[in-house]
Amino acid sequence: MTTVNSVENHTTIFHIAAGLVCLWLSYRLFVFLRFFRPKSEHTLRSVAILVLGDIGRSPRMMYHAESFAENGFMTYVIGYGGSKPIPALERLPKVELRYLSEPPAILRSLPFVLLAPFKIIHQVTSILRELLIHAGEPPEYILVQNPPSIPTLAIVWLVGKIRGSKVIIDWHNLGYSILELKLPKTHLYVKIAKWFEATFGKVAYAHLFVTEAMRDFLVKEWNLVGEKVVLHDRPPKHFHRCSAQEIHDLFTKLQTPFSQYKSLQNFLPESTTPFSTPLTDRKPSSESSTATSPIPDLDPISATAPTYENVQPPRLRPDRPALVVSSTSWTPDEDFGILLDALKQYEQRARELSEANIGKKLPKILMAVTGKGPQRDEYMKEINRLQAKWHWVRCISLWLEAEDYPKFLGSADLGVSLHSSSSGRDLPMKVVDMFGCGLPVCALNFECLPELVKDGRNGLVFNNSEELFKQFELLLTSFPSSERLDALRTSLYHATRSLEVSQSSSNEQWCSWDENWNRRLKPIILRGIRV
């Protein structure tokens, strides 16, 4: 009897296990078949945004995510971690950040020839896992940035076919043109990259372009299929010129990273936070206006003081250096050597004027270069060697969090753009950010730059280091009371509020990212109900 009961128990357990296995297989089959369900059954008002890079270093795609979420879309942002994203992506309830995994550590020790295939396979499987499984319901739209083109364009094309999602390609630049910076145009790899980009990028629900030149070229060369929208980069609405109080607060916060630079010792004016910074102090205006040497700080206010009438708000100090900023990715398409040569010439000229004592003077320059990239260490090593003998120029490299970056631009006196574009058909977003912060810009000239920078109206255009140096001298002479710099800043103020920045007949006005997105892209995605 015991034996019979034991057999029955084992049979029951077997049936239960078999039932559970069948149930699990049925569920997986159901999930798999739902990938191929009719397009009309997709989840509306959802988007997956694919960034094959550091999400926090992809501002345009982060702005896209914020705009989609604010318009009621469940927004999945898929990409790599590393840098902190803009605060809105962590605040908005409809945004979900999905970070791709890096290749296992054991693979990273392999030679590049062996690592590359494994890296690509790992990358492809990671993206497919996010888009096909972790995303749950098929998204209504998949928005992908290009470049990189390989393998993302093929992946989103495939997923769009499987899940019926509408693909939107945001053309930042051309992937094959970036490869041409390293290889000849006739190289087999360049030809394959161009074929790949044209084949999988040709057909999409919508194509977004950062310039009209990019749109016109791709429409003519590749005969793109789908909606075509020029969506110029624009600054977020919170970008603005900083007040003295905001500058004071920011540089109080940056005291620690600045103190790590030995090259700044004895170069910046003396300061003691929280009463003063290298750019601001709390001296009364009558004292500040006559100061000719480092300004002593006010004594701390006593906690028992009956009133606070003598507390002065922060003011820009007259002995401050000119803060010049350049944002760069430290890549070959941005020739940092041009800026370095211009700074060498500035140092020599400022020294000559000081020794001549003829009344015309140039200020000290604090050159801050933001961003990360492969050539950073090489250039900073050369800079540190040079500035060990410099008196009038210091150059530092900074990495700023997303919330501090616009404040830093809004605190600066002059911006520099070294972007030259591998394709000649994209525009530097850094200039857009600078304009949004009321910062005049000296920009390196290239083919479609006039779509953004109007020479003499909202910035100055240079072609080489000699011209950049002359612009430094022109704008900074007699700083901080520089008439030329003030005039350019005033011109920029009017240009970014009323002047057309596009050469087309579309009569496009300068506006914030939100206004531009709502005007250009919102009508297309809101009418995109399944057909």
Automatic annotation (TrEMBL):
Main localization of the protein described in the UniProt heading: endoplasmic reticulum
The keyword Oxidoreductase belongs to this UniProt entry's keyword annotation: no
Membrane spanning residue stretches: 12-36
One GO MF term attached to the UniProt entry: chitobiosyldiphosphodolichol beta-mannosyltransferase activity
Keywords recorded for this protein, A-Z: Endoplasmic reticulum, Glycosyltransferase, Membrane, Transferase, Transmembrane, Transmembrane helix
EC nos: 2.4.1.142
Spans annotated as Disordered: 272-316
Top enzyme category: transferase
Pathway per the UniProt entry: Protein modification; protein glycosylation
Cited Pfam families: Glyco_trans_1_4
Membrane topology: Single-pass membrane protein
Location of the protein in the cell: Endoplasmic reticulum membrane
Cellular component terms (Gene Ontology): endoplasmic reticulum membrane
InterPro entries listed in its UniProt record: ALG1-like (IPR026051)
Entry function: Participates in the formation of the lipid-linked precursor oligosaccharide for N-glycosylation. Involved in assembling the dolichol-pyrophosphate-GlcNAc(2)-Man(5) intermediate on the cytoplasmic surface of the ER.
Protein known as: Chitobiosyldiphosphodolichol beta-mannosyltransferase
Gene source species: Lentinula guzmanii
